[in-house]
Every structure is written in structure tokens, then in C-alpha cells.
């Protein structure tokens, strides 16, 4: 399945009561599609999946699928550290009509590599949807090795990975030993261009909430052979990317979206809003970026 090159790991908008704000979600979906997103990942880490209930996830999947109406792929975050629960949610997401699911490496219970293989292959057998694996050692504690990914890539409906280890050597090994049809996406915004350079497909991005068109432009520069402009765009975007990760994700990107006029509300506990110093620093970067953007890149 062709997911495109810039996928947005979408935040989940909340209202003042802390419930999902579906009207704000409608606005966000359309804003993202209009501003560089080739696809949407719903209820991933950036969507605050740990604090969404099972029913909230289903309502969110259904709403986004209906609002997108086939314009871009919708990838549902259905992974957890409970294989049976992941199967149940994946089956329900498939029935709702999502285009694919994303499955994170199990966190906290620390399975072996064989345990990881059995976890993902068992879920894959239970559905027909395309599957994107998600390796993020910084959050799950364990690292899925290239050998395990290569084994899993032999399963028909496991078609991609979001690789957020930050290890380009690991990413290169995966790309070298999986079929050309297997897509490798960076899970680190700052590694978008390096990922493309070693043969990766693109990015599952947080920053694309704010700079989606610019991320898309950078990818297209590189794909068209204009490496110099791609590199210049990378350098231009990097300070803002860093600012959007200055606090536990998605705290800063939600603050930035609210600031630029795309209302998404706050975060749920145990996440907390930016403090005054963090907010001032983010606003300073945003204003500098906006000034440059007006002047023309």
C-alpha cells in the first residue's frame, strides 16, 4: 500500500472538560490534509493513546474515517502491550474502515525478540489490513532488532515500519534486507532527510502539524534530485522541530497549534501544559519562523 511520504501522527483535540472535541477534530483533519499530509495516524503516542479509552479510540477512528472520506489513508494506532487486546481493537478498527493499523512494540513487559515476532505475527494473522510496525525504544524500553523486522516483513500484510530508534545504521540494515515494497518511515522528524538518503520512504511526523507543506517540500526536493535545497530546507526547519519536542510530546505541538489558530485544546494528565518559560521559548521560535516565512524561504 502506498501511504505517501509525509504522514502526520495526529494529536487528539480535547475540549475544556478534557473530552474529545470532535468539531475541533474535523477542523484539524481538514487543515492537515490541506497542508502537506499524505496520510493520518490516529491514536498513536502523539494522539495520547495511553489516556484514551477503548471506546474513545473507536469513536475517533470512526469519526476520522468518515471525515477523511477516502482522501488520504487513515492508519489507526491499535497496538499495546496486550496481544489479545491489540487483536480486538485491530479487528474493530478494520470493521470501521481504516486503511491500515500501526502496532507499537509492547512496552513495560519487555518481551524477547521471539516474543515480539510472535506478538506481531499473531495480530497480523487476525486481520487482513496492512500493518505498520512501530519501533520506539525510548518509550517501550525494548528495541526491535533488524533481524526481527526482516522476519516480520516476510508476512504478507506487514508492509511498513515507523523506526524511531534514532539509529540510522539499524534503519539502513532494515532497508537493505527487506523487499522494495516494504516501507521504512522515520519516527524522528529531525531524521527525515537522513532517512531518505539511506533509502527510506518518508516520515511519520509530529512537526507536520505546523510545517507540513515545508516537510513535503523538503521530501520533494530530495526525490527530484535537488539535494542542496533539501539540505537547506532541513537546516531551516531544524530549530522549529527541536522546539516542538522541547517538552513531552504532544504538549508543545498542541501549544503551537493553538497559537497558530488551529484549536486542539490541552493535554490529559499525567501530561501537563508548558510552563511560562517553555511557552515563551516556543512562541519566540514560532514568531521567528513566521517572520522568515513571510519574507519567503
UniProtKB/TrEMBL annotation:
It is an enzyme of class 4 (lyase). GO terms for biological process: diaminopimelate biosynthetic process; lysine biosynthetic process via diaminopimelate. CDD domains: DHDPS (cd00950). The active site is at residues 134, 162. InterPro entries: Aldolase_TIM (IPR013785), DapA (IPR005263), DapA-like (IPR002220), Schiff_base-form_aldolases_AS (IPR020625), Schiff_base-form_aldolases_CS (IPR020624). It catalyses: L-aspartate 4-semialdehyde + pyruvate = (2S,4S)-4-hydroxy-2,3,4,5-tetrahydrodipicolinate + H2O + H(+). PANTHER family: 4-HYDROXY-2-OXOGLUTARATE ALDOLASE, MITOCHONDRIAL, DIHYDRODIPICOLINATE SYNTHASE. Homotetramer; dimer of dimers. This is 4-hydroxy-tetrahydrodipicolinate synthase. The lineage of its organism: Bacteria, Bacillati, Bacillota, Bacilli, Bacillales.
Amino acid at each position: 500500500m502506498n501511504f505517501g511520504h509525509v504522514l502526520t501522527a495526529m494529536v487528539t483535540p480535547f475540549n475544556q472538560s478534557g473530552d474529545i472535541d470532535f468539531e475541533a477534530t474535523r477542523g484539524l483533519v481538514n487543515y492537515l490534509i490541506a497542508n502537506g499530509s499524505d496520510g493520518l495516524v490516529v491514536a498513536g503516542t502523539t494522539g495520547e493513546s495511553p489516556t484514551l479509552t477503548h471506546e474513545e479510540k473507536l469513536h475517533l477512528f470512526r469519526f476520522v474515517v468518515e471525515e477523511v472520506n477516502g482522501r488520504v489513508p487513515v492508519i489507526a494506532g491499535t497496538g499495546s502491550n496486550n496481544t489479545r487486546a491489540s487483536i480486538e481493537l485491530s479487528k474493530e478498527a478494520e470493521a470501521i474502515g481504516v486503511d491500515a493499523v500501526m502496532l507499537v512494540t509492547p512496552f513495560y513487559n519487555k518481551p524477547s525478540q521471539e516474543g515480539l515476532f510472535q506478538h506481531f505475527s499473531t495480530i497480523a494473522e487476525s486481520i487482513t489490513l496492512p500493518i505498520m510496525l512501530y519501533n520506539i525504544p525510548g518509550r517501550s524500553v525494548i528495541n526491535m532488532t533488524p533481524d526481527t523486522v526482516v522476519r516480520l516483513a516476510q508476512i504478507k500484510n506487514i508492509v511498513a515500519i515507523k523506526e524511531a530508534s534514532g539509529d540510522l545504521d539499524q534503519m539502513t540494515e532494515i532497508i537493505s534486507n527487506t523487499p522494495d515494497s516494504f516501507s521504512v518511515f522515520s519516527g524522528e522528524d529531525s531524521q527525515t532527510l537522513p532517512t531518505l538518503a539511506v533509502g527510506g520512504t518518508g516520515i511519520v511526523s509530529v512537526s507536520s502539524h505546523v510545517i507540513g507543506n515545508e516537510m513535503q517540500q523538503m521530501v520533494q526536493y530530495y526525490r527530484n534530485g535537488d539535494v542542496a535545497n533539501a539540505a537547506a530546507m532541513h537546516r531551516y526547519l531544524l530549530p522549529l522541530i527541536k522546539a516542538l519536542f522541547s517538552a513531552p510530546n504532544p504538549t508543545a505541538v498542541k501549544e503551537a497549534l493553538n497559537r497558530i489558530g488551529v484549536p486542539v485544546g490541552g493535554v490529559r494528565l499525567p501530561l501537563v501544559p508548558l510552563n511560562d518559560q517553555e511557552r515563551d521559548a516556543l512562541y519566540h521560535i514560532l514568531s521567528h519562523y513566521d517572520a522568515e516565512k513571510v519574507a519567503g524561504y
